[in-house]
Amino acid sequence: MGNCGTREENAVVAAHAQLQQLHLLQHPVKNAVAERKHTRISSDMSDPSTPRKIEDAKNISIYNDVIDFTLFELETITKSFRADYVLGEGGFGTVYKGYIDENVRVGLKSLPVAVKVLNKDGHQGHREWLTEVRFLGQLRHPNLVKLIGYCCEDDHRLLVYEFMFRGSLENHLFRRTATPLPWATRMSIAFGAAKGLACLHNAERPIIYRDFKTSNILLDSDYTAKLSDFGLAKAGPEGDETHVSTRIMGTYGYAAPEYVMTGHLTARSDVYSFGVVLLELLTGRKSIDKSRPSREHSL
Ligand SMILES: Nc1ncnc2c1ncn2[C@@H]1O[C@H](COP(=O)(O)OP(=O)(O)OP(=O)(O)O)[C@@H](O)[C@H]1O
Ligand SMILES: [Mg+2]
Asked: Binding positions for ATP (predicted)?
C-alpha cells in the first residue's frame, strides 16, 4: 500500500465475452440528476483516447484482488437495491450500501462496501465504467478510494468500493444540518486530497483526474480524504506533448476555464479545481450557488 502507479498483471476482466454482446449507443446522454445538482460539462467532440470500443475491455489489466461480482451477489447485499440502502445519487448512477462476507462468496473478507449502479445510458455509462475499472483497479494509495470489485452482466454495469463512513466532503460542508468542520480537519482534508491528486499526476504515465470537487472527496471514519469517481480520468500527455485534446467533460464551477474553452487538458486543470475546493473549504461557500444574489453566484 502507499504506492501509486499502474502495474501490469495478467488478470483480465473475466466478463469481456459478455461485453462483446452489447449494443452501444453512439452519443453520450445527459443525465437529469447531474443537471439538478451540479451542471456537468460534456461536449460532443470525439475523444480518441477514451476507451470507445467494447473490445477495449479485453485489454484491461487489473490487480488480482479486484473481484468480479455477479449481479445476483450485489442484489443480495443491497436487498435488491432497496431505497433505504441508498447512500447517494450522482450524475452516473445511484450508490447503495452493502456488506460482503463469507455468506456472499466463500473466501470474502467481511467488509462494508458502497455499490454504484451505473445508469443504463448506453455508450456513456459503459465508458465511465470501463475508465473507472481501468484506472482505479490498478491504483492503490491511502488517499484514493479502493475499488473492491465490479460487475458486468448483460447491460448492467456496477462498481463496488470500500465504504467511506463519513460520506462526501460536500455533505459536511454544505448540508444544512452538518456540524461545521474544525479548521485543522479542513486543512488535513485539503492535504489528503492533494496527496491523492499528486499520486495520479506523478504516476509513471500521469493520470488527469478531471472531476475534482467536494462530492468526489470522500471521508473515512477518521476524516482521511480519499478521491473517488474515476469515470472521467484521462491518461496525461506523453513525451513532447503539452496537453491532451479531449472532449470537454467535468463540472461547471470546478473545470478550468482554459480547458473548457480549448479542450486542451493538462494536470494543471486538476490544480485549478483543487484551488476551487480549497476556496470552498476556507469560505464554506459553494463554487456556484444560485441561491445567492446574481453577482454572487460564482465564488
Ligand atoms: N465509497 C463510498 N462510501 C460512502 N458513500 C459513498 C461512496 N461513494 C459514493 N458515496 C455517496 O454517494 C453519493 C453519490 O456519489 P456519486 O459519485 O455517484 O455522485 P456525486 O459525486 O455526488 O455526483 P457526480 O455524479 O456529479 O460526481 C456521494 O456524494 C456520497 O455521499
Ligand atoms: Mg462522484
From this structure: 116
